[in-house]
Amino acid sequence: MNQKRFHVILVKPSKYDDEGYVIRWWRAVVTSNSLACLVSLTNDAGARMILGPDVELVTHIFDETVEKIPVVKLCRTIKKAGERAVVSLVGVQSNQFPRALDLARQFRKEGFPVMIGGFHVSGTTAMLPEKIPELERSADGVTLVAGEVEGNWDRLLRDAYAGKLERKYNFLEVRPDLQGVPGPIMSRENLRYFINTHSSFDAGRGCPFRCSFCTIINVQGHTMRPRTADDIEKLVRENHRHGVNHFFITDDNFARNPNWETIADRLIYLKEKEGLRSSLMLQTDTMAHKIPRFIEKMTHAGCRRVFIGMESVNPRNLDACGKRQNKISEYRRMLQAWRDHGALTCAGYIIGFPNDTYESIMRDVEFLKREIPLDLAEFFVLTPLPGSEDHQKMTRQGTRMDTDLNGYDADHVVMEHPQMSREEWTRAYRDAWRSFYSPEHCLTLLKRRKGPRRRLLFSSLIWFRSAFFLTGVHPLLGGYFRSHGRKDRRPGMPLEPIPVYYTKRGIEFLKYSFGMLTTLWDLWWLNRKAQAPENESYTDSAIQPEPVEQTSDLATDKNSSVCAP
């Protein structure tokens, strides 16, 4: 029997930078969890021969943040063999949607059907159904997929193979049970583009909180849907087999995963009984330290870093975004609990709440540096992301927002502010980064740590300083050494002449290389100073968990609260 082949091309699109070039790197840090999920679902569908015993599913995997997508070459190779394919653009966020549409047009020009899924399509469908016709017009013949595809991926592949893909699929009504579903596994070939043998997986989806700027809750729901400890063990074992032992658990709030303890116990068992050690990064809310045994067990299981959605130290800002579930008076106690168990703490911090001014932002950042025992901070511009309650309200009220979705990356200002001009807002955002990661404060951060965690902090400081100061993009969008393509420029922007283009790229490369060497030298010197004998007493134990005496308008409301990012 001659076996037919049907190609499934899975693409995680990147986005355009301010000059219109695709953001792509020589090496990045963390793989796309959405892409890994689709890889596993496709491989499972192929193993079950869902298209029939005479049809082989061939999977092609591309992450555009680290790979150039060979659209024409790939499509023509498939067509030359007399075979067919479907293209799926996966995990597409709002800031990636313009690039996703441009890629979709390239594939459709070659005659292949294209699907687009992810948070932009899902969030818009969930929160602004009146905008669906406009969304479909912008997609121009591309199939839109809203919601999670576990339980529906077979149907999509069958429809694609039969040439009967519908214009739109809406799977938001029924959110899938994840227990026993194939979990995210990335192939070893694709992992070579990432450093630190680092991958990711979702141990569950959903979040019980109701932050107005969040899209997670409107796409994945408020009910936590976990994977089982058996599912996680299978994921960890398979990744270890490929040499991967660093994991980012992508749950928006792992502390509220109902299976967190059984998962932690299983990871501890694998570590102690079988020597399968895993280094974990988690996302949690600010009240996770009140869950009995949570911090103790998670750090024992391998948690080395924790991301906490602090968002602000100003109670008026926290009230404005509906973050009523964590108390500012608990910040120090919570952070000290993580530090006592050896985990680095990183806070998400939002710039541009309605009450903010340039002066209040910089004052709050100084308070954050001086009074809150954080190791790291990630700053974000307040952005009305499609799929959030904020965006829904602003759209229906007719509030003016930028129409170019490429800027909706929490690194650009996309709306007006009641207290600041756009220029002032941008300056406050960038000055917050500069202040927190100034040489003086980096020295303070290094003084607070010693032993292995200081080394981990040192490498993290390299990442944050190099990403923001050298590449001009947010660390979440960053990587090491830009990989440009002269023709990979946004449609409508001119193609630069070869001498001009390569001269600019050469200058950028030299500036980046020199800047990286300077960054490494500066941080090495600061680390040497932090290790000086007179700083030995400046350690974790020097930071006490008592509540801070508040001044001015900072954190005076003991009932204010914060949740996970």
Description:
The protein is α/β, with parallel strands linked by helices and 565 residues long. The chain folds into two domains: 4-170, Rossmann fold (3-Layer(aba) Sandwich), CATH 3.40.50; 242-477, Alpha-Beta Horseshoe (pyruvate-formate lyase- activating enzyme), CATH 3.80.30. Helix content is 40%, strand content 15%. It has 19 helices and 16 strands. It has helices at residues 33-47, 71-80, 97-109, 119-127, 132-139, 153-161, 188-191, 216-219, 229-241, 260-274, 294-301, 315-320, 331-340, 358-371, 389-397, 422-436, 439-447, 452-471, 498-530, and strands at 4-12, 25-27, 55-63, 84-89, 114-117, 143-146, 168-170, 198-201, 204-205, 225-226, 246-249, 279-284, 303-311, 344-351, 376-381, 480-482. The strands form four sheets. Strands 3-1-4-5-6-7 form a six-stranded parallel sheet, sandwiched between helices. Strand 4, helix 3 and strand 5 (114-117) form a beta-alpha-beta unit. The longest helix is centred in the last third of the chain and has 33 residues, at 498-530. The chain is globular and about 75 Å long. The N and C termini lie far apart (53 Å). The model is unreliable at 540-565 (pLDDT under 50).
From the alpha carbons, calculate the radius of gyration and give it in angstroms: 24 Å
Strand content: 5-15%
- Binned, the helix content reads 25-40%
Please state the structural category.
alpha/beta
What global shape is seen?
A: globular
Task: Summarize this structure as a short list of keywords or feature phrases.
565 residues, Rossmann fold, six-stranded parallel β-sheet, 2 domains, alpha/beta, globular, pyruvate-formate lyase- activating enzyme
